[in-house]
Amino acid sequence: MNVNGKAYRSIWLNPDGCSVSIIDQTLLPHRFEIRVLNTVAEAAEAISTMRVRGAPLIGATAAYGIAMAMKEDSSDDALDIAANALLATRPTAVNLRWALTRVVGELLPLPGSARQAVAFELCRRICDEDVEINFRIGNHGLGLIRSLWEQKQHPGDPVYILTHCNAGWLATVDWGTALAPVYQAHDAGIPVHVWVDETRPRNQGAALTCWELSAHGVSHDLIVDNAGGHLMQHGKVDLCITGTDRTAFNGDVCNKVGTYLKALAAADNSVPFYVALPGPTIDWEMADGVAGIPIEERDAAEVTTVSGRLENGEIASVQIAPDGVSARNLAFDVTPARLVTGLVTERGVCNASEQGLKSLYPEQEQ
Ligand code: MRU
Hints:
By secondary structure, the protein is an alpha/beta fold. The chain has 12 helices and 18 strands. The strands form 5 sheets. A 7-stranded mixed beta sheet has the order 8-7-6-9-12-17-18, sandwiched between helices. A 4-stranded mixed beta sheet has the order 13-10-11-16, covered by helices on one side. It has a 3-stranded antiparallel beta sheet with strand order 3-4-5, with helices on one face.
């Protein structure tokens, strides 16, 4: 997508062929800074500190982490150590495991001397595939938005869409998952207006989704996390759409904490609640998402403080709770399949159920 008229992906290979550049998402929306990653340690640091975040981008960065490890040491031991270090960075998004399994699986049978070149080429493919997948998700989701628009009394009335966290291009290699349909609807001339949940504690909605939407010229309002229910009750939301970090094969959907409450409010108000996801976000080993998906618990300081820009332009963190307060920072929750109207994938839209998912991914049938 474009930043100040220049096309960017969220991660790209540098001309040296053995390092990557990322957009440091911890500095947005105040500063747009590119950071170069040279080593597996730098890739792991970028994931755990959330310079890169969002399930598909975490996977792509981890894949490049393995490739960069192969520059220093291409032995089996080094492969194993790099994969374990990357896997330990964040527990919830299954794209991390998916990418590591794919890269390690391709490299292991090869001689050490071939591994670096093959790994970088595979990472390029993983990134290109992600872009293609998300474009297709956008296309399928566009159909849903178009049909809501066609039901409007006046063609100038916008389709009101509520989203949580950031499932836009910054969370993927390009396009995004939940926001890909929004961008494609906007580009097709369908009026859309997005309600953006701020998404405490790290405010991915306020910082990243609003930044992306305004760069693309999509109409939106930032709202506090608890406003969505009120908007739904008053007929101001036509569609909720979010991304997901891991979807169990029974259709339970794990996403940024607070997603579940939006789904409950949507069900109570008969607002369709869709989740957009690429195939690699489906965990075919996970039968029950509510019971089994590991929920990341991050530093409590993210809850007791808020970070932002001071009047003098400096980025700072301020404390919002009493000294010594005890806080918990559960970063994700799971929305049970029964609350999900449908899953929007690169292969089409299906019910949030094992049967629905297997109808689109028949290769997973035993
Ligand atoms: O903690 P984050 O910012 O990595 O969480 C990201 C999300 O929850 C996104 O909604 C999810 O990864 C889907 S992104 C296409």
